[in-house]
Amino acid sequence: MTTNYKIFNNTVFALAIALLCYYIVTFFMMPPIIHPEFYRTFPAMLAETEQGLFHDAISKTFNLLMIEDGAYRPRALAFFMHWIDTHTIAALSQYTTLFGVRLPLILFSALTFVAMAFLLCRALFPSFSISLCLLLSTLPLFFPQFQITTYVTLRSAKMLAPAVIAFIFYIFIKFNHNMENSKKSHVLLIAFLLFLLSTIDEQSLATLVFFTSLSLLLCLLDKKINVNFIIFIIATLSYLVYHLFLAKMLFKYFTPVDIGQHPHTIGGVLRIDMSMMHNSLSLLYKNMRHFFPPIVCAIIFMLVFYKLVTCYKRFLLRECIVFASILLFIITLIYSICIAHPSIVALPDLHKSMYFIPTVSLLYFAILYIFSRIVEFEKLKPINAAILLIVVTISHVIYFYNYKSDYYLNHVAKNGHLRIVSSKNDPGYPHSFVDILDGMNIQGYVLTSW
Length: 450
Fold this sequence. Notes:
Blueprint: H1 2-29, E1 33-34, H2 36-46, H3 53-61, E2 71-72, H4 76-92, H5 104-124, H6 130-138, H7 144-150, E3 152-153, H8 157-174, H9 184-197, H10 202-222, H11 227-254, E4 260-261, H12 266-269, H13 274-288, H14 292-306, H15 308-313, H16 317-340, H17 343-346, H18 357-378, H19 382-407, H20 410-414, E5 419-421, H21 431-438, E6 446-449
Helix pairs in contact: 1-6, 3-4, 5-6, 5-8, 8-10, 8-18, 9-11, 10-11, 10-16, 13-16, 14-19, 16-18
């Protein structure tokens, strides 16, 4: 039995590494799709200043004219990553054509996501081997939303957002105990890190606020204060101070025009629109649809071997509250996205785009959470639970191959979302962007236009 388990474990590890290597290789092999917003901001980010590199990074990170046209949307970490990407592309182009117009931090963000998801899987499944947790962490890279985002040159922060969500979920699971077992310095450090990461985008921030509320609810049920709630509330309040005071001062100082209000504010996205609610539920179904095959396989497996009905009877109220709350939050988040970006409803393929990486990641983690509770309550042997989740993995990979061949460039172009620009004489090329590319050692890029 021990020998067989080692063989199984080594096979799982080899599969996880193979999938990870395949993802990295395709990152360099597939031609990048350059989003129009990127080639609008690229020349401005590379414009030289006389005050040094550090001042250049700070002044462009906090200049809302660079990306937001002067509207107040304080995604400082996302803007800083964008500055790093543009300057790294310019520097690498002097020595190699390997990166082209690909975003270097996209690859870093994807690997960071795998690392954060691995931490979460280890917390959810402590009895599972490292190999299996690595496989479960690598699997989401082959979801349609991740694949499309990997090849789109826009902002690397789009790929880092699900890593932040994985980290938030990890804190929610790992720090579910009172303060007696934690050092105050560690709690403050983690809270500060969460605050910084929440400046990536609004979906990460919304997830932080959601888990703060969920942790508070569970604290009331348990009649005790858990460490995860303390971490979340400190991070949330820190962001509130940042958004209302610190960020406004910094962005006002470095933005040479009056700062305007961005439409993606709470008041702008949380208005009632029943037609958008219907569209949100439709988009939720489209996001969940590729989960159905593995879920069906998993349910059949448990029905045959583990009597799922008796398992449900033993479910605790806590697990039901967590899973139902996450689903409700995902619906609310998708609704907010539809209100903020009405074009998502009009364009049939955008439910597979970067906008829904956070929601599909959170849904995946919620499913893993339920699986982990089943494993704990039924005390399944790790090898049997591993087989169940391997079925999930294979199902997702098969789905990806069927999906990718239909979508990548042709399907997008057919539906009018992006237009492939094949010649430098095409009006889709902004001249300022072409002039920069001509001075760089970049070949084989693909430009697209709305």
